[in-house]
Amino acid sequence: MDMSSTLALSPQSTSEQSEDAARSVKPILRFDRVGLEYDGRDVLKELSFSVNRGEVITVLGPSGCGKTTMLNIVAGFLQPSSGIALVNDREIAGPGPDRGVVFQSYALFDWMTVEDNIAFSLRCSGKNRSQQNAVAKDVAKLVGLQGFEKSYPYQLSGGMRQRCGLARVLAANPSVMLMDEPFAAVDVQTRETLQEEILRIKTETKCTIIFITHSIDEAVFLADRIFLMRKGRLGAFDEFTVNLPEPRGSSENRLHPEFLSVREQIYRAMRADAS
Ligand SMILES: Nc1ncnc2c1ncn2[C@@H]1O[C@H](COP(=O)(O)OP(=O)(O)OP(=O)(O)O)[C@@H](O)[C@H]1O
Ligand SMILES: [Mg+2]
Question: Residue 101: inside a domain, yes or no?
Fold first, then answer.
């Protein structure tokens, strides 16, 4: 689908393209010895990693190990107690339109239609009302909600509401999407469809994704790399690379030997942690 009229900007000059090429080899996100404490208690300590532009990172780990805390630092909702967190080589000083957060709860406005919910994130974008509506229509189509633009959230299923929440974040065209267990509340089939959609959308928008989940299958299916945070290790993590064939969103990948092999490695690591 052609998003050029709405989401993307005008055609790029050669110098802009070479700037893009230079940027693409640099990490979009970097944590350098980040620590975070709540009330004098360390939750994350000396956490370092970098994420490349266009990568999908999934984060697994037991409840309370600091996954949401880490995501909140990237989103700019929390400041590190020590170390530095950077997006595009700039220290993260607060929330910004370059980072969109998709929460587990749908976070929709019940009194607004799907279209208005999606357009809401464009209110400060400088786009006029009809441009906002055009983007909302395109994004609704991108997430498979075409035909439901005039519906209200109560008229949608759980999976459709989650799509609408996703669309609202996508409309702002963020370069980094932060997703905290976004599909935990939907049934298995819808969840698998949404995972496949996420990878399709990622291919179209070229965004970078950090995705927290408790599902090993979801983590392996989506990821280029998996960060497995461990109990009592204050945010330290083991890393697994996933080399599944393209197109990454193909449901056949769920049966691929690489999928099964990485899933087993993670399962064993988690079980060792639990014992
Ligand atoms: N606002 C807060 N004040 C004090 N402690 C907090 C606060 N938010 C989180 N914590 C603590 O920080 C730790 C990490 O919490 P966090 O929410 O990051 O875990 P999580 O890995 O996302 O867990 P879950 O899988 O259950 O969502 C927990 O011990 C939690 O109790
Ligand atoms: Mg959490």
Answer: no
Ligand 1 within 6 A of CB of 231: no
Distance between Cα 68 and ligand 1 center (Å): 7
Atom of ligand 1 nearest to the CA of 41: 5
User: Among all ligands shown, which has an atom nearest to the Cα of 70?
Assistant: 1
Does residue 64 have its Cβ closer than 6 Å to ligand 1? Answer: yes
Domains of the chain: total? 1
Does residue 53 sit in helix, strand or coil? coil
162-199 b/e with 16+ CB inside 10 Å = b?
Answer: bbbbbbbbbbbbbbbbbbbbbbeebeeebbbbbbbbbb
Mean pLDDT, range 2-29, rounded to an integer: 54
Does residue 47's CB lie within 6 angstroms of at least one atom of ligand 1? Answer: no
Over residues 23-82, the pLDDT tens digits come to 556 799 999 999 999 998 999 999 999 999 999 999 999 999 999 999 999 999 999 999
Going by CA atoms, what residue is nearest to atom 27 of ligand 1? 63
* Full domain range(s) for residue 150: 108-173
CA of 265 to the centre of ligand 1 (A): 26
140 within some domain: yes
pLDDT tens figures, 232-267:
778 789 999 999 999 999 999 999 999 999 999 999
In which region does residue 247 sit, left (phi positive, over 0), alpha (psi from -120 to 50) or beta (all else)? beta
Q: Examine residue 132 and state whether it is found in any structural domain, yes or no.
A: yes
Domain annotation covers residue 142: yes
